[in-house]
Design a protein that fits this description.
Length: 221
């Protein structure tokens, strides 16, 4: 857990403090790597590695494999996108079947889904962007659905959707987990358990569960 916390703090520092200056920092990092490679070449350090091939292989290969695994987990999701379009409960109600005819039909009450609260997503910083609309839709007497529309968020590892009792999202560990983020873009729904007290719900958020980092949140007005 300590290692994950350190990764989370490092990722937050990079995204909040360094990312706005990426166009300055990136060329400097590339220049620094080229300078180190040139220095190593001039000092003929590669000859030392070649003379100790066994040690180089035993240390270098595991280090490269570990670096690739970590980079694949932490970095590759940032470049991956997914899209999902699910029908809105509001649209499904509007296009629902006609009520049955006959004497029994007068005793059957048809509930019409309605949006009781809504909001707009915003990213937590320049790196963790998020945008789109969110609706809290009542689909029955005591049933609700959280609806994402025109949604887009920066991808990341282990992203989940939560409901929070805090207007600004707060700590997701103390919030209700609705499940994994279905897609980075599109429109989709999350069923809310009947045991949830909707009156206490103040916001929806997209949270990186692995590293405890907030990607986006929306206050439900």
């Amino acid at each position: 857990m300590l290692l994950l916390s350190i990764f989370g703090e490092l990722e937050t520092f990079i995204s909040e403090d360094l990312y706005p200056y990426r166009f300055i920092i990136t060329p400097l990092i590339i220049a620094g790597m080229l300078a180190v490679a040139y220095f190593a070449y001039r000092k003929r350090l590669h000859h030392i590695l070649l003379r100790h091939r066994l040690a180089t292989t035993l240390i270098g290969v595991p280090a490269v494999v570990l670096a690739l695994v970590i980079a694949d987990y932490l970095v590759s999701p940032l470049w991956e996108r997914s899209h999902l379009e699910e029908a809105s409960p509001l649209a499904m109600t509007a296009a629902g079947a006609e009520p049955a005819k006959g004497p029994a039909s007068s005793s059957v009450a048809t509930f019409e889904a309605k949006a009781v609260r809504s909001g707009q997503f915003m990213g937590s910083d320049d790196f963790h962007f998020g945008r789109g609309d969110v609706q809290l839709i009542q689909t029955g007497t005591d049933t609700y659905v959280l609806r994402f529309e025109n949604f887009s968020v920066r991808n990341g590892p282990d992203l989940y959707v939560y409901l929070s009792e805090d207007e600004d999202g707060g700590n997701a560990r103390e919030s209700l987990n609705l499940g994994k983020l279905k897609a980075t873009d599109g429109a989709f729904n999350y069923e809310i358990p009947a045991t949830v007290d909707i009156s206490k719900v103040k916001s929806a958020l997209v949270w990186c569960k692995q590293f405890a980092v907030l990607f986006a949140h929306a206050e439900l007005m």
